[in-house]
Amino acid sequence: MNLGPSSRKDKFARMSQYAEDRKKKKKRLVTRGDVLDEREVDDEEQVTHKEEEANEQLQFEDPFEDEFEEEEVEPVEEKKEEEEDWEDEVEVANKPVKIRALTKDELTKLKGNRMNEEEKTSSRAIPKPDVFLGSSKTIGREEVLDFDNRSYDMLHRVQTEWPCLSCDFVVPDQDPSNPGRLEPVQMKKYPYTVYLVAGTQASSATKNEIYVMKFAELHKTKYDDDSMDGDSEDEDNDEDPKLQIRSVAHRQPINRVRSMNSSPIVAVWDEAGVVSIIDLTKHVRHLAQTPNDAFKREKPKEASVLGSFQQSAEGFALAWNQVQTGVLAAGARDSVVRLYEPRESQSAWAAGPVITAHSDSVEDLGFSPSEAHVLASCSVDRSVRIYDLRERASLKRGSIIIEEAHASDVNVISWEDKLSRLLASGGDDGNFRIWDVRHPNRPISDITWHTEAITSIQFQPGEDAVVAVASADNRLSIWDFATEPDHGDAQNDMEIPDQLLFLHQGQDDVKELRWHPVYTEMIISTAANGFHAFKPNLEDDEMREFDDERDDEIQIQLD
To answer: 370-377: long-range contacts at Cβ-Cβ below 8 A with a sequence spacing of 24 or more?
Structure first.
């Protein structure tokens, strides 16, 4: 399958049409775990349903609510009984098949590892799942994708008026002149508040906006629908999360958005072939100062543009230099990579050197996390190239060249930021590879598991062996490629690779994922049907309980 520039635009158009159809048609959205099962409501049926306007679509969905939970309670008893009867009939008619995400513990069990009798007695009872490793594209008409909430420490979902092709996290107090990775914070004390920027794909160009969003009161959701389990870490986890949003008018569909060192200064690639550098500081500050319960949706604001550059073609590749503050690289469909450098203390930007090494569309870019002069790129020409920006000859060909990095278009790349030696790449054929740039002749890891094009890939911050991968097959996977595959495991007949840590589903046409730069266990993903913000449960429940008890004992001894 080819997800090059031409087919990408077709898919983008479908995303916009998806949102437009959702607004026009009268539907009942029924939440079943990870899939929204949309059923049209007949006017003759006695069902109360409040039609949501554009403003009301900017809200979180409760992934743990009952399927037919009503927003309004009718005072008439007879009507309420009719609704309940109708709901029962629908439940019987659809015969939902429970298919759920797998925890790391369950993945280990499915790989053939067996616990001894003592561990079986002391472990938490886990019901046997109907294991589903396909994508929501292969679910039958009368099936719904459900999940076990124990698979996630936190899972929240939100739908906006228009779908977004690209997004990135923003840290409100982050100084854009401060390069390097932020200090990570382990997620133990809920709730959390995070900020996000995203670019829309609206049905018409003039409706497009840059969303500046605040996800507040993100509580822990693990065990939310388990009556016997409690959670001492988040006593108020029944509170609903809050979404606040400010819109900045852009008037062109946005292909990609990237924040500079996680600051509110962002770069935007749009469909008209313009690269813009925009200061969103006042909008992020406004959201940070607004109480979570005192928010009103306002009309889109005008952008504070620091730089704007018209290209000969549109593009998708965009990357900020993580060491030399303010240097931006943009790659276009015309196969050219252009650099932009700051002037006058980052109040303006000017065009810099040009890289002409590729022979086809440049799909993604990434600066080395530790060396300001090192830039990597990938292309539809199937190659991955790494440049030394100090050398003129390198700009024309590349210093490190992997000619046939994949058997098809190379869509995405990502550096690991721990040692800055490894580079991940994802191809149009569903394959992703890990390269040691010191020895680029062959990948150190080569995994073909996804069935359609890789659309996004990113190393977990601070980790050199954990990578998250999103695919057009509607699956988002997390891998630990340092795990040695057990080729002699005869019991592993479920096609679960030993390196697979976690599998997330429930989004249609997943476009991009991003790890949070501070809360490095949290992922945001954007797709045609909205955003998912989640923290996967990658720990064995028993081991976590043991660690907590040991920490308590150590604390008592210290006291």
So the answer is: 370/323, 370/417, 370/420, 371/323, 371/420, 372/321, 372/323, 372/324, 372/327, 375/319, 375/329, 375/337, 376/413, 376/415, 376/423, 376/437, 377/317, 377/331, 377/337, 377/413
Cis omega (within 30 of 0) on the bond before 191? yes
- Of 500, 498, 510, the residue nearest 536 (C-alpha): 500
pLDDT, position 96: 38
* Side chain identity, residue 263: S
Tokens of 282: 């006042």
DSSP 447: E
Please give the average per-residue pLDDT across 184-195, as a whole number. Answer: 94
Task: Check: pTM over 0.85? Answer yes or no.
Answer: no
Q: Copy the structure tokens of residue 83.
A: 């609704």
Q: What is the H or E stretch that residue 89 is in?
A: helix 77-94
DSSP assignment of 138-150 equals: G--TT------GG
103 pLDDT higher than 80: no
- Bridge partners, residue 387, by sequence: 375
**How far apart are the two ends of the chain, measured CA to CA in Å?**
61
Structure tokens at 503: 């599998």
Evaluated on CA atoms 361, 367, 368, 373, the torsion sign reads positive
Q: Report residue 209 as tokens.
A: 């906006």
350: pLDDT strictly greater than 60:
yes
